[in-house]
Amino acid sequence: MTADEERELLAHLERLRQEHRDLDVAIQALQDMPGSDQLQLARFKKRKLQLRDRIGYIEDQICPDIIA
């Protein structure tokens, strides 16, 4: 992997982490509201899980877990 590719992956990783944090805040706010939209809450949680999986995949590409 070239340095440019790694920088690009790191930037993408940071954007995904920020979106994950933003969803965390949105989910908490939605849960705190009485009568909140459960369908929207489920969508946010699903997106958050997708982001977590994508973050893990990119982290593995940057620093592979190689058993020596």
UniProtKB/TrEMBL annotation:
The organism of origin for this protein: Ancylobacter rudongensis
Alphabetically ordered keywords of this record: Coiled coil
Pfam families: DUF465 (PF04325)
Domain of life: Bacteria
Coiled coil: 3-33
Protein's name in the database: DUF465 domain-containing protein
